[in-house]
Request: fold
Amino acid sequence: MKLLFLGLSVLFFSCNMFNVAVRNVPVFFSSPEKVRNKITDPVKQNVRLSVLWIGHSTVLIQMDDKVIITDPLLTETAGELARRVVEPGIDIINIPQCDIILISHSHFDHLSLGSLQILDDICKSASLVFPDGMENYIPDYKMKMVRMKNDRGYRNNYTGETRTVNGLKITTVFAQHWGGRYGLDGYLWGENAYTGYVIEYNGLCVYFAGDTGYHHKRFKQIGEKFKIDLALIPIGPCSDCNQCGTYNHVFPHCAYEIFKDTKAKYMIPIHYGTLVFAQADPYEPLAEFLKIVKENNHEDRIFPLEIGEQKIIYMLE
Amino acid sequence: MISHVFLYIILTFVFVSAEVYSQLKSATVPVKWISWTLLQGLPSPGYYADNDGMNKSLRFTLSWQVIPLSYSFSSNKYLTNWSFFYIKPVKRFSGSAEMFFEPTVATGDYKYSRLRRFQWNSGARVVIPLAQRGEYLCFSLGLAYYNQKSLNGELNHGISYEAGIYSFFGMSGLKFNYYSGSSSRYSLKLYLKYY
Reply:
């Protein structure tokens, strides 16, 4: 009886990982879909603000002469069990020298040690920026490491701290998520290394939401404090996509609410279409989100991208 | 029986419900350390050779992985290189040297080699990363002293050599041991250790 109890407990403890593994079985034995016409020169002289979606939450942002990469996932798998359904939207050889690599939290689909190793060899002068507590999940790299405060999981405030890193002003801002990487550390031990970021440079302002649930007040506060040009907001994963979301994840409707609350001029949806999660089809969030965009006539402000597609927001006048 | 079911329901809520674990951001220090200590009780199953030169058999065993001291070669600037008992996975799999103590209990006496059920093994090993900074794959090489009494009370001890390969964040692996001078010279065990 005791053994049965122990076995069932272990089984339940690992059920989420088990679900991910089971859902990924067909994906694991098929190659990721190829991306056609990949961009080879993502950084352009005459561009002030542009975004290249590499997949999932990985975005290459050009802000004038600065290059930022968010949550780099350049490998074929995340956490060994989840395999990409579409290959990365840029060839590694074409990744430019970057100034900042932002990590929002320590989950496998956002913190890929192998991907950081790739960038460590390319971006020799980059700074790796991450929230307080994530130092427990990353080994040493040649890149300069910058740990930023996040109010211990944004218990009281909606901002963590502001720092100038490689010439860019970076502020850690509210996200509603959870930390940890190996199950119990996030579920039970209270690891809270997660954050969103606002990046400001030469009058441009980009908001990277990381991975977050919805909060009726905090995103409005972010919108009041910053004049955001572009917001990168997750819209999945979801299986019941007409709901707002869960405590930790926004679905399309509340992703749109975040866009409205933060008063961003433009938005690019992220965090879908790349990996198979236990609870969802990777493309389901986009279908629902497109309906919302159309209903609200925001096709001129919200730009869902294909993986590997680049959107130029501002050109040099 | 009822208390088991009750405890099981609570554990299910804790482990499975996103809403519940989100509320546990401010988990207390005792919760962390009690759960960690309980997890150290998770045994690593394995098989030992039971051999007297004429007859051969296998003994099912359970081992426990205790790492009193570890030195990481790849800690970032915010962490110390040293760890005591509680080993953050990244510090281990990304390259480390560690001292270990590994008690092992067989489910029955060694019929042919006439050894008692209990053995302990203590020494040092290095962990070397192979893929994704070791998080996907790493291996270890180690040297240890083993100690096991025979059924008539004589000491059976010597040097053991081990090689291991680990996946899933260095927390699970497969370890092969060779015991020099013992009549039961080989063992193949899983390595299971959470932090």
